[in-house]
Design brief:
Elements lengths: L5 H7 L9 E5 L3 H12 L3 E6 L12 E4 L5 H9 L3 E4 L6 H8 L8 H7 L2 H10 L7 E4 L2 H11 L3 E5 L9 E4 L8 H10 L5 E5 L3 E11 L5 E3 L3 E6 L2 E7 L5 H18 L3 E10 L4 E7 L9 H4 L4 H9 L13 E7 L14 H4 L5 E5 L10 E8 L3 H13 L2
The chain binds adenosine-5'-diphosphate and magnesium ion.
């Protein structure tokens, strides 16, 4: 390495990071790609670190460093050439984040990431700070999982502490009257990867919503209008902004998101996923410290998209206005759309794009797989319900 002291470099980069500089992103998936596109639009250079050199952000980045989430030397390489570093994935090791922070500001930082990247730590943190969460237990063995399911006394979902997403690393117990016996628990334990997990009581949901909050290093906060989210097989299917919930719930949900951001002293974005139960309770499901699938619509729904906001927060720029511009819906396009009838076929995008207000975003993933997020459709309309109808109609034409 050079004779520079890393601390000097960090000092040199204090204050706003202005266009022309390079931004580093841990993760080159679709979120990194769309964040990178926003950064490029604003005149930044984009450096990405990802284990897969053919990642979606690779097509739009100036530099791609092929490396794993635990590779601290690669993390140093990323940060050394960048004026600010951010991330699009939770799994980056705190060792890598700490190493990167020796060379450039890393937003969000390792302390918050350590809490969020482990479901057990995250749930305990939320409960400890008085945020509303559903009934849960922690299990570190099949025996503890059996005891946890018994204590929760109802259908439950076990979720691995680390590494899960889109319902992966999760297992359902006692659904549809199924017995929760030693055999069922052994199978569930294997499904979560035979590893420490959170066991949650399965809640009777009225709706799912999410709230995106951005916090700048100087403490400025912007809270987006809530999105309403519909999942199928534990994967997001469609989202609308604004959510169809009463004003009092909007205020409550935004208040929770703001307080979580403040308590963490967040620098960056945080998506707060919330459950609205049938009996009217708002409970925090989980946190995502990055752009979020449910806010892809913010590119059209809000004055400032989540992706530009992520860049602003990472660069210590003033945060952008998050007011609603127009009701917007998005529908995810999973690999399944390509894989109907047992073979790969190109969806009829021409038909979908003929619907008024519809736009297409693809992530340039080369191989469609079942459950893999390949892109999304968006639609605007005079109401969120109409936007959703349009986007779902467009998707049905593919
Ligand atoms: P992921 O990291 O895969 O997004 P989540 O914990 O958000 O994991 O679970 C995915 C989805 O599964 C949720 O959005 C929700 O639809 C459903 N789900 C998860 N936990 C519960 C629960 N305790 N009660 C009811 N539904 C749940
Ligand atoms: Mg989730």
């Amino acid at each position: 390495m050079t004779g520079f002291m890393p601390a000097d470099l960090v000092t040199k980069h204090a204050g706003p990071v202005l266009p022309g500089a390079a931004i580093g992103i841990f993760g080159g998936g679709q979120l990194g790609r769309m964040m990178g596109i926003a950064a490029r639009s604003m005149g930044y250079k984009v450096h990405v670190l990802d284990p897969d050199p053919a990642c979606p952000a690779g097509y739009i980045a100036d530099v791609v460093i092929e490396a794993g989430w635990n590779d601290r030397w690669a993390a140093a390489n990323l940060a050394r050439d960048c004026a600010a570093v951010t991330l699009e994935i939770e799994q980056v090791s705190t060792v890598s984040l700490d190493e990167a922070a020796r060379w450039a500001p890393v937003r969000p930082g390792a302390a918050m990431m350590a809490v969020i990247q482990d479901r057990i730590e995250q749930k305990n943190w939320l409960a400890k700070h008085g945020f509303p969460v559903g009934a849960y237990r922690v299990a570190r063995s099949a025996e503890q999982l059996l005891a946890a399911a018994g204590e929760l006394a109802g259908p439950a979902i076990a979720k691995s502490a680390t590494g899960g997403y889109d319902g992966r690393g999760q297992s359902k117990l006692g659904f549809d009257g199924a017995a929760v016996d030693a055999a069922a628990v052994r199978q569930a334990w294997e499904e979560v990867g035979s590893t420490a997990c959170v066991v949650e009581l399965a809640l009777d949901l009225e709706k799912e919503i999410s709230v995106m909050v951005a916090r700048a290093p100087n403490g400025e906060i912007k809270v987006y209008p809530p999105a309403e989210n519909f999942h199928e097989d534990q994967i997001l299917s469609w989202s609308i902004i604004p959510a169809g919930v009463p004003a009092a719930l909007v205020t409550e949900a935004q208040g929770i998101a703001r307080e979580i951001a403040d308590t963490f002293a967040l620098e960056g974005l945080l998506a707060v996923e919330l459950f609205l139960t049938k009996d009217g309770k708002l409970l925090v499901n989980e946190l995502a410290p990055r752009p979020h699938n449910s806010y892809h619509g913010s590119e059209r729904a809000c004055v400032t998209s989540q992706f530009e906001q992520a860049v602003r927060a990472a660069c210590d720029l003033p945060l952008g206005d998050v007011s609603l511009v127009q009701p917007t819906a998005i529908a995810n396009l999973l690999g399944d759309v390509w894989l109907r009838d047992g073979s790969v076929h190109e969806p009829a995008f021409d038909k979908a794009l003929a619907i008024d207000g519809v736009r297409l975003t693809l992530y340039e993933k080369l191989k469609p797989r079942h459950g893999r997020k390949m892109g999304h459709l968006s639609a605007v309309a005079s109401t969120a319900a109409e936007a959703r109808d349009r986007v779902l109609q467009a998707k049905s034409l593919l």
